[in-house]
Design a protein that fits this description.
This protein has 716 residues and is α/β, with parallel strands linked by helices. It has three domains: 24-50 and 415-625, Rossmann fold (3-Layer(aba) Sandwich), CATH 3.40.50.2000; 64-184, 2-Layer Sandwich (Nucleotidyltransferase, domain 5), CATH 3.30.420.40; 227-411 and 633-661, Rossmann fold, CATH 3.40.50.2000. 40% of the residues lie in helices and 15% in strands. The protein starts with 23 loop residues before the first strand and ends with a helix. 55% of the residues are buried.
Length: 716
């Protein structure tokens, strides 16, 4: 059985570079009046919503559980199109409900893209349809069509380059081909080749990315890309979807391909027994969220080693041809010795995306130490280690000179972040309600505001604390006879994460307890299909966003919420303090203090002026350094230096700061979130160790002071 469930991409309609209509994106007027009935100048305005490219639409319609629910909620019917431009004729084949209809007419204008978009829009409205994907042949003359389909019409584009007449398909063949790439739930199948290389969807143009960056950063990006011509970069991780790593890789590979960089992304051959080990005994143990008696046994090690051998044999040819290989997280770490053996000249970077509790991993006798030593035996052969920018994530036995910092990033053009129209957001809320109804839950009341936490159902995400804080703020609002918000807890799943179902079931059990009897119907808990546009809409339409993770490397959902002008209340853990400016664009709370979380929620939900001030700051301060262009600059800089034979000294320096310094040829002051990078000389290993030891004593106020310190002092 193929463990990779199909995956879909969707597109969105709107000029994403039109300024978002207000820092509070998307709360309905009814929800605003509910929150602030006195008519205060509430900061809520209509806004457009981003959505993630390949999965939203499919999940959207079919998972929504059949014709009856679709009719009840007025959900548009899914449809697909094949498009062909030939001899000044436009042919469009449309497939819906197993029927195919072909339309052909002479082109009416020289602007073929606009003509295609106009036809699709008109027919979709007339038939109450939602086009999921389009396959277009001979679109080379119309470079803007790909991104117009994706960014304007929320349609996943598949473009076939011009072919010889003898090989050209007719338009009916095109639509049947695109339908075959989606399942009965309208979810696109993940495309992997024989070597398990992920075929990344080409959704936008390089010019679209240019608009997301400063002129200086884009010039730097082009310069670095030119330097890597003729070199092959390879990225390897566990799974092609589910979690932040896969999202970052989709976006990065998409951009690198547009830059003509020879970049490839491979995933491991899935094995359930191995994933059980890597999640519960690697990931959870290193983050110190596993049970104290969790132990990595010799049997576990043998199973993991056998799995690595299987994958190494499958990837042997990939190793031999690569100039640089990036290994993402512990799951594929065991491949590093095989890469060295197959290609001694290849450069290897290990990228850690999780919050390793470095103090425990360095302490003999702990489960963390045992697991880390097993992994370090393999990771130590990599040339460098990249971590989220927190010194406490790095065990003591990692040489400081091998360590560089990079934050997690999100993509402004994917389904999670691109703007959506009000009409599109309305459709996604209907799809969400259909999923709730199918699960036996009450639908979301769109006339009332809601609080949201978007996260995987993982033991480190603090979901019981989310429920407790919500129960407390409800009590506070009821005492003052205020409008009671709803709560949404939602997230996706991943094939390498066995925790999802038990955590989800545990949350449902809590809601059945006596403590939640009066509010359980107002709590919506959903493990969503991989429909990024739904997540996008849920963030856009929310009042306040929570991120109560008890362990966290660097949470892109915080970045995504701030980009949408949403106040974020989060626990003061991991890399989150580098993302939120306490009291300015959100609030940091010590772990477990759900009473303080409730107080911040109460203030934001009852004080319109404060809400507007925090929301505007969130929208304005969301960091460009946490987007795909910056991520690409970091990787291209590191690759160019390594492949030139440069001996780099890491000492926990930010890769982007070093890239800037090289590009500008001088010390360069660089803003990274609230952290100022001022380009001084790197500290020695002892200084870094001393700074790391201070971390546990830092308070929220102390971390706000990081803005006044050099980048390594901030990188604790």
């Amino acid at each position: 059985m193929n463990l990779y469930a199909p995956l879909t991409k969707r597109v969105i309609k709107q000029d994403i570079w039109t300024p978002l209509a207000g820092y509070i994106s998307g709360l309905s007027a009814l929800a605003v009046r509910a929150l602030f009935p006195q008519g205060t100048n509430a900061p809520f305005r209509k806004a457009r919503v981003p959505v993630n490219a390949t999965r939203a639409k499919s999940v959207s319609q079919a998972t929504a559980a059949g014709v009856n629910l679709q009719e009840r909620l007025s959900i548009p019917q899914p449809a697909y199109v094949g498009i062909q431009v030939k001899d000044q004729m436009l042919s469009i084949a449309e497939a819906s409900h197993g029927n195919t209809t072909t339309h052909t007419h002479a082109l009416l204008s020289s602007n073929v893209t606009n003509e295609i978009l106009y036809w699709l829009k008109q027919v979709a409205q007339q038939k109450h349809q939602q086009y999921i994907a389009a396959m277009v042949q001979d679109a080379g003359q119309h470079e803007d069509l790909r991104s117009a389909l994706w960014l304007q019409e929320d349609i996943v584009p598949y473009i076939i380059e011009r072919q010889p007449v003898s090989q050209a398909a007719n338009v009916e063949d095109l639509v049947q081909e695109i339908v075959s790439r989606f399942d009965e739930s309208n979810i696109a199948s993940i495309q992997l080749n024989a070597s398990h290389e992920v075929q990344v969807a080409e959704l936008v143009t390089l010019d679209d990315y240019r608009k997301t960056a400063s002129q200086e950063d884009f010039a730097q990006l082009l310069d670095l890309a030119r330097a890597l011509q003729g070199k092959k970069l390879v990225f390897i991780n566990a799974t092609p979807r589910g979690g932040g790593v896969a999202l970052m890789r989709h976006a990065l590979i998409r951009l690198l391909r547009l830059l003509d960089v020879d970049a490839h992304w491979y995933v491991l051959i899935p094995r359930k027994e191995a994933f059980d080990i890597t999640k519960s005994k690697f990931h959870n143990v290193l983050q110190a969220v596993a049970r104290q008696d969790t132990e990595l046994t010799e049997t576990d090690k043998l199973l993991y080693e056998d799995w690595m051998k299987e994958n190494a044999e499958a990837l042997q040819g990939v190793f031999q041809q690569a100039d640089m290989v990036v290994i993402d997280d512990p799951q594929p770490a065991g491949l590093i010795p095989y890469i060295k053996q197959a290609n001694p000249d290849a450069k290897i970077i290990y990228r850690s995306h999780i919050q390793i509790v470095g103090s425990l991993a360095s302490l003999p006798g702990t489960p963390q130490h045992a697991t880390w030593q097993f992994l370090w035996d393999k990771i130590q052969h990599a040339d460098y280690l990249i971590s989220h920018p927190m010194k406490m994530f790095i065990p003591d036995n990692v040489p400081a000179e091998k360590v560089f910092y990079m934050p997690a990033t999100t993509d402004p053009l994917d389904g999670l972040n691109k703007p959506l129209t009000e009409e599109q957001m309305s459709t996604y809320l209907k799809l969400f309600n259909a999923l709730l109804l199918e699960d036996g839950q009450e639908p979301l009341d769109e006339q009332r505001p809601y609080i949201v936490q978007i996260a995987r159902f993982d033991p480190a995400k603090g979901i019981p604390d989310v429920l407790d804080a919500y129960r407390k703020v409800r009590r506070m609002l009821e005492e003052q006879q205020r409008v009671i918000p709803q709560l949404i807890i939602a997230g996706n799943c991943s094939i390498d994460d066995p925790d999802g179902v038990p955590i989800y079931n545990g949350i449902k059990e809590i809601l059945r307890s006596e403590n939640y009897a009066s509010c359980a119907d107002d709590v919506k808990v959903m493990r969503l299909p991989h429909c990024d546009q739904i997540l996008n809409t849920l963030l856009r339409k929310s009042a306040v966003v929570l991120q109560l993770s008890t362990k966290e490397g660097f949470e892109v959902k915080v970045t995504e919420a701030l980009m949408k002008g949403k106040p974020v209340i989060a626990y003061n853990v991991g890399g989150i303090p580098l993302q939120i400016q306490h009291g300015i664009d959100g609030y940091l709370v010590e772990v477990g203090n759900t009473t303080q979380v409730a107080k911040h929620l109460y203030d934001l939900l009852t004080d319109a002026d404060k809400y507007q001030r925090v929301s505007q700051a969130a929208f304005e301060h969301a960091g460009k350094d946490y987007l795909t262009i910056t991520n690409a600059i970091c990787w291209l800089y590191l690759a160019s230096q390594l492949l030139k034979g440069e001996k780099m000294q890491g000492y926990c320096q930010w890769a982007k700061a070093l890239a800037d310094r090289q590009f500008w040829g001088r010390a360069h002051t660089h803003e990274v979130g609230i952290v100022r990078v001022d380009g001084a000389s790197p500290p020695n290993a002892q200084q870094l160790a001393d700074e790391g030891a201070e971390h546990d004593r830092l308070t929220v106020g102390d971390k706000a002071d990081l803005a006044r310190t050099p980048f390594w002092a901030a990188s604790i």
